[in-house]
Design a protein that fits this description.
80% helix; mainly alpha; 206 residues; 6 helices; Four Helix Bundle (Hemerythrin (Met), subunit A)
Length: 206
């Protein structure tokens, strides 16, 4: 190999390294799509809570106290955020058994949160606070719309948790791609923070 060809090889290797480093610095397309989706969700809930503040000045608007089960579900949601972060850490450390345990616990807590939300809506109805239909009050309808919409986002996150979890059980390949787990964990943290915001929002206004 001549000196010129060796120098050319070194230049090509240097160029390849620069391209790889540049690619690493770029945000992953899936992560970019996630952030766009989260921005849209933020705008949607900001619009709903803003409408709530405007509407509450109208005649006939009733005040209320959130059922305690919503507070309990908040604790469940915070715990699930901790377990999903521990699952992500275990995955990156290639401790797959520990990862699966924490991921499964996160999914169970997410399902528990959804059930508790449904029970909370039933408690509203049972206490005479009609949320839909004839005789319902706009205040309670807003709670159903906002909290119910959040519960649907939790359900979507729960489905994503289950899908990612079962994919890691596959014995066909061992790629250990952390991107899907990171995306699910980020989304789960987001819906956790969003629920904390909603609980504080309703508590301060009532």
């Amino acid at each position: 190999m001549t000196w010129a060809s060796a120098a050319a090889d070194r230049e090509r290797q240097k160029s390849d390294m620069e391209v790889m480093n540049a690619q690493r610095k770029k945000i992953h397309p899936y992560k970019f799509s996630l952030w766009l989706a989260l921005a849209g969700i933020i705008m949607m809930f900001a619009g709903l809570t803003s409408a709530y503040i405007v509407k509450r000045s109208q005649p006939g608007w009733e005040s209320f106290t959130l059922p305690k089960i919503f507070i309990y579900s908040t604790v469940v949601m915070v715990l699930s955020s901790i377990t999903v972060q521990m699952a992500l850490r275990a995955f990156k450390e290639r401790e797959m058994a520990r990862y699966r345990v924490f991921f499964a616990v996160t999914a169970i807590l997410g399902l528990a949160f959804i059930i508790m939300q449904v029970l909370g809506f039933y408690q509203f109805q049972a206490s005479g606070k009609k949320m839909i239909g004839l005789g319902s009050n706009p205040a309670y309808s807003f709670v159903l719309a906002i909290a119910g919409l959040h519960a649907l986002h939790i359900l979507g996150g729960f489905i994503a948790l289950v899908i990612v979890f079962f994919k890691t059980l596959s014995t066909k390949k061992r790629l250990y791609d952390a991107i899907p787990v990171e995306i699910v964990a980020t989304y789960w943290h987001f819906v956790d923070i969003l629920w904390l915001y909603l609980v504080v929002f309703f508590s301060l206004l009532h």
